[in-house]
Amino acid sequence: MGEEQIVEFMKKKETAKSALCKKLSFDCQMPLIGLVIDRGLDASQKAMIENFLEGIGSLDVEIVVIADTDLDSFSFPYVHHIPYSEKNRKEAMQAIDMMVTLPFNDLEELWLNGVVPISCKRKGVTDYDPNRETGNAFVYGEAEKSNHWKVFAGVVRALETFKFPYDWQSIIINGLEKLQRS
What we know:
Blueprint: H1 3-24, E1 32-37, H2 43-56, E2 62-67, E3 79-83, H3 86-95, E4 98-100, H4 107-112, E5 116-119, E6 138-139, H5 148-162, H6 165-181
Parallel strand pairs: 1-2, 1-4, 2-3, 4-5, 5-6
Helix pairs in contact: 1-3, 2-5
């Protein structure tokens, strides 16, 4: 991807984020974390998400949950619900900065939209290494061994890196390049 293409891509992302922030009435300067629930959750996944969302309120973030089920379980003041539809999903993907992924979420869709995954270990995901400027995600461990604390730690790492635009853009580019090689 050339420099001009990257600049244009990032401008489109910023415009999409501004539009979503205006639509949902929240501060566009804060990091926007997404969570897509496009299928039923088992009890452990639901508990992990509830605990994670409860704890994340201590950080300065906005969260968008795109789902058509379990919305009552995820009611917190800093969580914005968007009913699931292809249109809403596309609009949110173009706007969000990072996404806490579940094992069934499509990572390619995230990378195509410049969304940085916060993911369990899985094929294609490389944990971000700030010293080498490599990686396309923030990895919080094995799916079977994950809990809300590990997810929270992954989010904190992502939020700290988000403060550095060059590093953040590098992760986005790494994700896009991963797709080009696939």
